Amino acid sequence: IMEWSRFRDIFIDELIRLDGLGWQSSPMVCALPLCGKEGLYRCLDCFNSSVVCSGCMCATHQCHPLHRIEFWTGDFWQKSSLHLLGLIVPLGHNGGVCPSSPSTTNLTIIDISGIHTVSVNFCDCDSVCLPHRNQLLRVRWWPATVDRPQTVATFTALDTFLQLSLQSKLNMYDFYLSMVHLTDNAGVQNLKERYKEWLRCVREFRHAHTAKRSACGHDPGGVQATQSGECAVECPACPQPGRNLPEGWENSPSCQSYSDNTAFTGGGL
């Protein structure tokens, strides 16, 4: 830390530089070749956050709808969103818009980068259409409801929370509130309350993975055929005959016997 303190002015200068235009100067031109339009937007999540126009921003973020973008007002960078720029994410047609469903649906998406609003175009073809919940799951978005979902949580957010809850005992409310503050730390955007939906997604996600890791997904009878105790995790330290107990352990002298652990010799579940 003493070595870093000699360079802290440089670090602070770079932070201030990121708050401004940096090497760019006004008027700004879209950084993508052959465009030439005025560039007023930058992405905070792309490696190279060059300034581009609104059309190029949507075109380059068709597969990255949760990236955070900013708009140059002329004096400072202001938070914006791909949703406000008109980005529509098609589902079910490998990136193409469904001809049977030209309308869009606004989804509230909970991610580790914050809470987003994204317009999606569901596939509603009569012959090959999948339910909306399946279309969302295939892009790694967990729907909060099975019918007409309006809120989803990304697999990344759910995985991250489960790891944090195990390692740091973080509760669901504090994690959700952190996502709210990442989105709007000043509380001026009037975000929709989606805490109950977040709770439901976490519980369903945890239960589904428990069943999957217990091989219930390969059972012809499905999850409903799971018997009592099949999802339990055996304790490797508990004495179990035929596994970690020597032959003839029941005939061992009292000073070496496992009589005090007879309650655990049934499997240690």
TrEMBL record:
It comes from the Eukaryota. Pfam families: CxC2. Residues 82-187 form the CxC2-like cysteine cluster KDZ transposase-associated domain. This is CxC2-like cysteine cluster KDZ transposase-associated domain-containing protein. It comes from Rickenella mellea. The lineage of its organism: Eukaryota, Fungi, Dikarya, Basidiomycota, Agaricomycotina.
